[in-house]
Write a structure and sequence with these properties.
about 25% helix
Length: about 260
């Protein structure tokens, strides 16, 4: 089988991966706190191809196609999104660096998604019910006279939480020296890779109560990239089709000799 087909197939596979990333970004364009992903790959020089490819067979063609790039990488863009005023006291936006801490059964996770609420026990939680972590653990919002009633819930720019004017806790806001090593765990939650440096207390931040940070996805740019990727994918398909037709003609002509 022609090496040109492998070259084109590898390009088509890479473009397919890019399309998956772009589609996921667009699907989360309205997700609070979402951070978009980017993909990149480096093609290999034909002169550096392994000799084994010259004897490739149709049975291993799909695996061989991936040998024509060094590695496909995806990374998260942590650029800050714009703020949206909601007027909800339980909506909190981080301005600057840092992440909110969220307690899950398998450990602490980190997020920029700050549209919180209260559960039936008066604990500040995410939309999925996971407690938001403060310096003293999960943050409890309870009135001083009646635990189930309070008049005012406030969070200042430094993350200090007060209920009816009484300080009850402080949001734990952390940062990472290498945010690129954070893994997406779904629902805008992140977790460090194994053996990564531990988080440190964030310093360059402030909290905006009544706001949320919207997704940093640029919809127009993503749509433009999607069109580019689709056209590139179609081009690789044409190359594969042309190379296959050329191989078929060669085989038929040799058979007639």
């Amino acid at each position: 089988m022609s090496g040109g087909i492998y070259m084109a197939a590898s390009g088509a596979l890479a473009y397919e991966k890019r399309l998956q990333i772009i589609s996921n970004n667009l699907a989360n364009a309205n997700t609070v706190g979402y951070k978009m992903d980017h993909g990149s790959f480096q093609s290999i020089d034909p002169a550096d191809l392994p000799a084994s490819l010259s004897s490739a067979t149709p049975e291993n063609s799909s695996s061989m196609a991936q040998s024509f790039w060094f590695q496909f990488n995806s990374y998260t863009d942590f650029t800050h999104g714009s703020l949206k005023n909601t007027g909800n006291d339980f909506d909190l936006a981080l301005v600057g660096d840092g992440f909110f801490c969220v307690q899950k059964p398998d450990g602490v996770h980190y997020t920029r998604k700050g549209n919180f609420t209260l559960n039936q026990d008066g604990v500040l939680v995410t939309g999925n019910g996971f407690p938001v972590v403060g310096d003293g653990g999960p943050i409890e919002v309870k009135g001083s006279e009646n635990p189930h009633r309070f008049k005012k819930f406030t969070v200042d720019e430094e993350g200090n939480v007060s209920v009816d004017g009484k300080h009850v806790d402080s949001l734990r806001i952390v940062n990472f020296d290498e945010p690129g090593k954070l893994l997406k765990m779904g629902d805008t939650l992140f977790k460090p890779e194994e053996n990564s440096p531990p988080p440190v207390d964030a310093k360059d931040f402030k909290i905006s109560q009544g706001f949320v940070e919207i997704s940093n996805v640029d919809v127009v740019k993503m749509m433009t990239e999607m069109i580019e990727v689709l056209r590139g994918y179609e081009s690789y398909q044409k190359v594969i089709r042309t190379a296959d037709e050329a191989s078929s003609r060669s085989i038929n002509e040799v058979g007639k000799v």
